[in-house]
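User: Hi! Is it possible to get a structure for several chains at once, not just one? Here's what I have:
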Amino acid sequence: MNFKIVSKENNSLARAGVISTSHGDILTPAFVTVGTKATVKALSMEQVREAGSQVVLANTYHLYLEPGDDLVRDAGGLGKFMNWNGPTMTDSGGFQVFSLGAAFGKKISKVAKNESGIWIESGEIPKDERTPTLVEITEEGVKFKSYLDGSEHFFTPERSMEIQSDLGADIIFAFDECTSPDASYEYQKEALDRTHRWASRSLSHHKSLARKWDQALFGIVQGGRYQDLRKESARVLAGMNFDGYGIGGSFEKEDMGNAVRWVNEILPENKPRHLLGIGEPIDLILGIENGIDTFDCVVPTRLGRNGTIYTKYGRMIITNAEFRKDFSPIQADCECYTCLHYSRAYVAHLFRANEMLAGTLASIHNLHFLTKIVADAREAILDDRFFEYKKEVLDNYLK
RNA sequence: GGGUGUGUCGCAUAGUGGCAAUUGCACUGGGCUGUAAACUCAGCGGCCUUCCGGCCUCCGCAGGUUCGAGUCCUGCCGCACCCA
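Assistant: Yes, the chains can be modeled jointly so their relative placement is included. Here is the combined structure:
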């Protein structure tokens, strides 16, 4: 993998570049489509490509459980297996430490909206009153109970590297612990130090593995919503020789742009930075402004399947009564396949009728919408009018 | 004509005399950020209330029994099936 910065915006950390992999180039900033189980839900790879996607990210934990990383390896690697001939990434399983752990069975998001101004920290809840989870974290690694059949599996940084080596993505991530926004400072600190040790173990094990293919390894910055921990994490990881960096963990919605800037002011400028699992239109703009090169997020496909559709004027819930007889396209000037051929009324009908095509058409539009926001931001950086572009997007979206 | 059933929120269903009444679908609104997710939460007779809640109306229609009836009784109406 190789990264080249093509253009920098003068008054921010924004930059446009190219990540070259053995499966092709990624023009950055770029939005990475999530295909957890080696499939982008409800879409064919042709549709993913046509919607504007350059890269697909799959998940180590899911593919290890099903169908097994050795099978994917024998199939010729992730891209070949899933019929995606472009660049690929795999997440390490670190997010599942959160989603199947602290977040399991709870209504908790890693992007916290601190509306009340009051945080209830999980550390304040006695251990025996906490919801049971599927993970158990130790210094050595994480014991997972399979969400499929309850069987136990032990993940370590080394194991994650081996599995990701089998999967064969172009860019892979260190095994980390994604912490919950309601974790206490003390816990965040403890988890952060452990994640740093895991980063170091990931790196050295990755180097020691017989290389089946050319894989870049990204370290993951953590630190939750604390400025000092975020900066400390960036410094520690910058000191390790990763090929690039992921920024993970939980954020305070209102503070996301700042959190990204704290980190990116420290990370080496000449290496790509990936903001893990972030996603919404405004977040993308703020991320780019503060030096992010790539993003991945489930939000276009998940929201799409669940009936929420992005437009440049904000989200719309397509099943709302007002769209029943609305024969206009989802967004008048959108050039995605869905908008070119179908009306709001039709998509709404498909959702009400529980037809599979509903999720497909909505996902195509949402994916196109987000990839276009990011691609247009790239153009704006190249043309030296990023802030103009930012204002236009925000003014419309928040209108 | 005779008999046996049966009528509960748009549809379909629960419902031992203390019930504003179960559940599913539909409907209405919300949530979803490195996918445990084509998922999930809430509302769904009316009015009032700051929470607790309060008041009114209500189970085909009309009477009756009872402290109290969706539940029991009588009649009527509708529907289903069986016998003629």
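Chain A has 15 helices and 18 strands. The longest strand of chain A covers residues 2-8.

User: Great, thank you!
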